Amino acid sequence: MKALLQRVTGASVSVAGEVVGRIGRGLVVFVGVVSGDTERDAQFLVQKTVNLRIFADQEGKFNLSALAIKGELLLVSQFTLVADTKKGRRPSFVEAAPPTEAEELFEQFVKQAGATGLKVETGRFQQYMQVEIHNDGPVTILLDSRE
User: Fold this and answer.
1) What span, in angstroms and rounded, lies between the C-alpha atoms of 108 and 102?
2) Rg of the Cα atoms in the chain
3) Residue 79 contacts residue 2 (beta carbons within 8 Å)
4) Is the bond preceding 99 in cis, omega lying within 30 degrees of 0?
5) pLDDT tens digits for 106-135?
6) CB atoms within 10 A of CB 57
């Protein structure tokens, strides 16, 4: 499972012109599910995401986590994170989990993120979405449960 974190001052996700999720200061987390991932992968990435110290303290150093600042999370399923671009010019998605498996694990990710006490908003699984991000820094970090 992969998660791409973007530290934001605010973000929203829309489907067909309707805003379905909106957050203030916190993290936008794009989640890609790899075939063979388990609930354990989701749990690992949720804990890594909410505890990663990528928010500045009073001295401007990365010492605070999303939990420490009571940040908000916007979680968006994104199978393209699993793209294999080693060959040719068109990405391959053969390593991506099938939609039913991916949706189940994404929902586990959402549930576990919500259990941290942080505000959690989401996009809509398998829908074309418009994501508006006010990247803060910018700070963008890729996490992989298999590394």
Assistant:
1) 10
2) 15
3) no
4) no
5) 999 999 999 999 999 999 999 999 999 999
6) 12
Tell me the domain boundaries of the chain. Answer: 2-144
Listed as own residue / partner, the contacts of 15-18 with beta carbons closer than 8 Å and 24 or more positions apart are 15/123, 15/124, 15/127, 15/128, 15/129, 15/130
Q: Whole-number mean pLDDT of the chain?
A: 96
Mean pLDDT of 4-21: 98
The hierarchical CATH code for the domain 2-144 is 3.50.80.10
Mean pLDDT value across residues 64-84: 97
DSSP state of 141: E
Euclidean distance between CA atoms 43 and 46, whole angstroms? 5
Residue 147: the pLDDT is: 82
Active site residues: 80
Q: Which two tokens stand for residue 83?
A: 């793209």
